[in-house]
């Protein structure tokens, strides 16, 4: 009976990981590629350091999806685990799976801090693209060096559940403790959570204070758009790392933001700015609703794993199904950013249409027209001047 339950749990886990994982992988690759295209195509984004951080995060998300989620689908859904036979892949996959999310999180933290300092006269000079490039490169080198033990301590060993098979896992108990408690809980969890909450709220306060300053409309619109994009991405990722506390915080501040925007109609604020503030608030409320729905399974799983242990086959069934579900939702944090922006921001929708149709599609059509013209056979022009023949040549000689 226990073997049947275990087999059923593995079958359900494989279906969840394969079907939902393939959907997340496909949409994530497309969404992050479109993010990169938009950020690199529009001058309003190319000139900002915040867009550079968002582009870096999109690249890191692509690597995370390809290197880890795709291999997870092969392992769970199709029983293709190259890490069991290749020591190089056994060390490379967890190394990339460690660095990629750290780079994504670091880039989003930098983007949040960037939005806080972008409107401060004292700190505005740090918001330069070359500084963003230096910080990104330094951060990448730092994470690569810090996580070298991941390469050292990941090896192919006998599987604990089945001594007949081999598995790629951490062989050092102390490093395993560090990896689970410090890397996952602190680096991926509370550290970036605190940074992004603090600077996100401060950036929100800065944007609110814009109505009291004389800021050009174009710069105001761009800064508010980028800030809203950073904040909704921050709120989405936070939902996977904390439970009801962050939901309460975000609901409270979301309602406060809604009240603030409603109160704008009593102030002397231009209509365009009022509509933008309403748009940002709607993005916040929509994102909060999405986070409440998606983060509940993760919170239930964390609570279950904190207070219970696996005792029998039924517990193992619940554990494996919840693990697969919450793990696949974790990968969704690397794929949904573009679609959240697209659904919640009308301006972003116009920008993506303009980039794809107004820039790249016209460019491709222009290239096709030029190639078609070059491939056409140009007819030879006839003139009244007689062509030279052998007789003419002999006569001339």
Automatic annotation (TrEMBL):
It is a multi-pass membrane protein. The keyword Membrane applies. It comes from the Eukaryota. InterPro entries: GPCR_Rhodpsn_7TM. One of its GO terms (cellular component) is plasma membrane. GO terms for molecular function: G protein-coupled receptor activity. This is G-protein coupled receptors family 1 profile domain-containing protein. The chain crosses the membrane at residues 20-40, 52-75, 95-113, 133-153, 182-205, 236-259, 279-304, 316-342. Residues 31-341 form the G-protein coupled receptors family 1 profile domain. It is found in: Membrane. Keywords: G-protein coupled receptor, Membrane, Receptor, Transducer, Transmembrane, Transmembrane helix.
């Amino acid at each position: 009976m226990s073997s049947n339950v275990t087999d059923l749990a593995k079958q359900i886990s494989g279906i969840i990981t394969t079907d939902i994982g393939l959907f997340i992988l496909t949409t994530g690759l497309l969404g992050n590629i479109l993010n990169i295209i938009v950020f690199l195509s529009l001058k309003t984004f190319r000139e900002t350091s915040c867009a550079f951080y968002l582009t870096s995060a999109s690249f890191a998300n692509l690597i995370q999806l390809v290197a880890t989620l795709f291999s997870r689908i092969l392992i769970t859904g199709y029983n293709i685990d190259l890490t069991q036979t290749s020591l190089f892949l056994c060390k490379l996959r967890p190394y990339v799976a460690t660095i990629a999310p750290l780079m994504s999180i670091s880039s989003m933290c930098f983007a949040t801090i960037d939005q806080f300092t972008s409107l401060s006269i004292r700190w505005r000079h740090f918001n330069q693209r070359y500084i963003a490039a230096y910080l990104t490169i330094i951060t990448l080198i730092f994470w690569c060096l810090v996580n070298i033990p991941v390469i050292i301590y990941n090896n192919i060993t006998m599987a604990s559940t089945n001594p007949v098979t081999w598995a790629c896992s951490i062989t050092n108990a102390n490093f395993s403790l560090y990896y689970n408690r410090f890397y996952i809980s602190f680096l991926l969890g509370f550290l970036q959570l605190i940074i992004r909450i603090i600077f996100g709220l401060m950036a929100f306060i800065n944007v609110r204070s814009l109505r009291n300053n004389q800021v050009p409309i174009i710069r105001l619109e761009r800064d508010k758009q980028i800030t809203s994009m950073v904040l909704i991405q921050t709120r989405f990722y936070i939902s996977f790392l904390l439970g009801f506390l962050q939901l309460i915080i975000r609901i409270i501040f979301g309602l406060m933001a809604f009240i603030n925007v409603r109160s704008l109609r009593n102030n002397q604020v231009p209509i365009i700015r009022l509509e933008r503030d309403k748009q940002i608030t709607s993005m916040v409320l929509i994102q909060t609703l999405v986070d409440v729905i998606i983060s509940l399974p993760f919170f239930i799983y964390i609570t279950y794993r904190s207070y219970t242990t696996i005792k029998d086959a039924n517990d193992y069934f619940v554990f494996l199904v919840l693990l697969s579900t919450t793990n696949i939702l974790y990968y969704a944090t690397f794929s949904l950013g573009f679609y959240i922006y697209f659904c919640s921001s009308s301006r972003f929708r116009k920008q993506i249409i303009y980039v794809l149709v107004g820039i790249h599609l016209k460019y491709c059509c222009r290239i096709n027209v030029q190639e078609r013209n070059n491939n056409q056979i140009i007819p030879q022009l006839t003139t009244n001047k007689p062509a030279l023949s052998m007789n003419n040549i002999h006569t001339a000689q």
